[in-house]
Every structure is written in structure tokens, then in C-alpha cells.
Amino acid sequence: MSSTYSLNSEVSPSMPVIDSETQTPIEIKFENVGVHYYSIPRWLGGQVFKALQNVDLNVEDKSLAIVGRSGAGKSTLIELLFGLKSPTVGGISLFGHSLPIRNSKVQATVCRLIQLVPQEPHTSLNPYYTVRQILAEPLSNLDVSGNHESIIEETLSDVGLPASLLSLKPNHLSTGQAQRVAIARALVVRPAVLVADEPTSSLDPVNRQRLLDLLNSLKKKRDMRLILVTHDLGAAQALCEEILVLDHGQMVEHGPTPQVMSEPDHPATQMLIESQPLSKSTC
């Protein structure tokens, strides 16, 4: 979640207290979640379109790849996860708190625990801010303690960028640099879970492999879990212990990465595997 992330809901006094300064157990749950739309109002005879249906998912201690073709429901799932859309049926909880969340203190803590790297890094960066301001914004908005300048420089170094970029604005960054700044913006608050939306989609093979190596290194160094949302099964194989396959809004396959890759059950999974070159696993 970026600093603009919105979670809206009441928190019951019985709900667990979470502390982003300590090791918080990772728990992300989707329970029978569905998202339904009507092309025209129902009372005019509109037909229901099910963008997602019957999604049951529990993310705990393993990195997860959510894969599928365009239109499979991946973007809808991200919108649900970050409170940008509400399910028509079912419920979602993050770290023991049901979405939406209205308690501002809990909201800020949850925002620190799970962060998003958007698909289009350049358009997600404030064009009027320098890199330093971009990285400082979530630290300030989420009330992160410590020396912010040191945190910014350390995070920028972790993504392989020099401190000399801190004074630049996004229009002076290459696509690769902008993507790493977007990753740094998510990492600067030290999340427990990083959600990366189609991170390899616009990269050539060389830069794609560099990004996979970077994400794998960051995952290990920062002891965080990755939720990779992608159509790139090779990236999923390289970075994640589990794979969930979406097709036409439904979960059609979910299991350990080696098993899904070697013994795919569903035609959608088989088609994805056959259509793409795969990466050597670095898990």
C-alpha cells in the first residue's frame, strides 16, 4: 500500500493488536470472495458478470504467485487486497483485521505491513517530487520512527541505485530506475509482504532477469513474503513457493510451485506453461 492506500472499516475491540515494529505473523485471508457486475442495471434485465467467484485463499509463510491470462481476475484481486474495491460476497482480512478498516491507527499499521509495487512505475511516481521526497512521503505519512535520511539511503542502496539519484525527478529516470524507485518506495517502511503487479511485463530479457534476481535478493535480505501478480509463469517459478492460477475469475489450480509446474491439472495452467520460456528457480 502506498501512502494513498485507503482501508475503511471499524475495528472490534476483540481484534488482535498488531505492531509493525515486531515480527507480526503473516495472515491474509480471502473467504468465498466474489465480485459481480451488471452490464446494465439488474432491473432492466442486465446479466451478471463475475469478475471473481468463490475465491478462498490463505497466505501465511510462503511467497505466492497469482498467475493468469489478461482478464483472469488478477487486477480485481489486487483492488480487493488494497481496499480499492469491496467484494460482492465473502470477506477479506489482513493480519487479523477484516476489510475495510476505519480505525486510523490500525490502518496505518496494516499499510506498513503490506505494500504494493504498481505495474506502471513511471505513472505511479509523483512527477513534481524528487526521489528523496517520493521515498520520504510514506515514512512521514505512516509515522515511521528513526532517521529518515538513513532509511532512504539504505533502501535506495538495497535496490541497487546510487544516492546521487535522490535529487532527480521521475522524468529524469530511465524505466528501470523508475521501477527500482517504486520498489524502494514500497520497501522503505519495511513491509512484511510485498505485492508486485506484473513487474516483468515491460522488460527485455536481460532486465527481466536482473529484476528477478533483485526481488529474490530483497526477499531473503528483508525476510519478507512476496505476492507476485503476473502472467509470467517463469517469474512465478523463480520467486515463489506456491502458485495460484486464475482463469475467468475462478481459482482453477493452487499448490506448491514444483508440483504445479511439473503436473499441471487445468488446461489454463498447461497453456501458460506451454506458451512461455521458464526461469530457473531461485527460491
TrEMBL record:
GO biological process: one example: transmembrane transport
SUPFAM superfamilies, sorted: P-loop containing nucleoside triphosphate hydrolases
Alphabetically ordered keywords of this record: ATP-binding, Nucleotide-binding, Transport
Keyword S-adenosyl-L-methionine: no
Entry keyword Cell membrane: no
InterPro entries: AAA+_ATPase (IPR003593), ABC_transp_ATP-bind (IPR050319), ABC_transporter-like_ATP-bd (IPR003439), P-loop_NTPase (IPR027417)
Ranges for domain ABC transporter: 28-273
Taxonomic superkingdom: Bacteria
GO molecular-function terms, A-Z: ATP binding; ATP hydrolysis activity
Stored PANTHER family: ABC TRANSPORTER, ATP-BINDING PROTEIN, TRANSPORT ATP-BINDING PROTEIN
Protein name: ABC transporter ATP-binding protein
